[in-house]
Amino acid sequence: MEYTELGKSGIKVSRICLGCMGFGDANLGHHAWTLDEEHSKEIIKAALDNGINFFDTAMGYADGTSEEYLGRSIKDLTARQNAIIATKFLPRTEAEVADGVSGQKHVADCLDNSLKRLGMDYVDLYICHMWDYHTPIEEIMEGLNIAVKQGKVRAIGISNCYAWQLEKANAVAERNGWAKFVSVQGHYNLLFREEEREMVPCCEENGIALTPYSPLASGRLVKTADEMTQRLETDTVAKSKYDLTKAQDSVIIARVAELAEKKGLTRTQIALGWLLSKATAPIVGATKVKHIEDAVATVGVKVSDEEIAYLEEMYVPHKLVGVMQFNHK
Q: Does residue 222 have a pLDDT over 70?
């Protein structure tokens, strides 16, 4: 495993981050394919055994049970300081807005609840899951800065936002002497490269870490056309992201398979290897130990400039999907 600094935070993270959206009570939340606690712990152990120290979860994953499973597993498997834990909070609810709950209090309440579910005193990275259009960003940034000063959070990040929003938030923080976002977690893979328009150069310019999610397009980049999984069949969120561009994306998927065969590598090593050349630490979901092993085997794989150009050549602009499609005023 290789390790690198998370932006300018001073925190050392593995080049692969284990995404924990696949862990949690399948009867709660949006996904019926999540793993129970026993199998989640097996995946987390495999990650630790393979040198992964970076784990990403969220209050919104399986109604918080992902946080619970991760927290208990880490406690059983390793010392707290050996794991870099990231979790995310959602925007204020309509009820909170109506009740006049401030952004600062919202951040504090969400964090305390996440810490309780994780069974931890602090998280290493606390992430704004998406831009809150109904709350002044000054309140959010102040709330996050308070959490950092209290020692409950080591660093802060943001997910699912535009480059102008990242710049605005960090400008507010800089003006007030508050903690700034050190990482961005966006939707970025060979089938969806819209982050390259503004977000990628913005982060490169400012030393902000890229920790993209969905690096394998929910499995589409590494599965054969006739290969089916429960997630491919039932994940309506992923279907909404990729089904409409299936025809144009199939050309890129074929090139991933072609290069993998040519180089004697797996499709994961090609698709994830491409992203590792662009990002700090892609967030890789896993529901089998083999998924961990395949991801870790990618670290150190070199994809040449010519191969990168070949993989990228047939990409065409995509409409925004997922959170970015719906998260607006």
A: yes
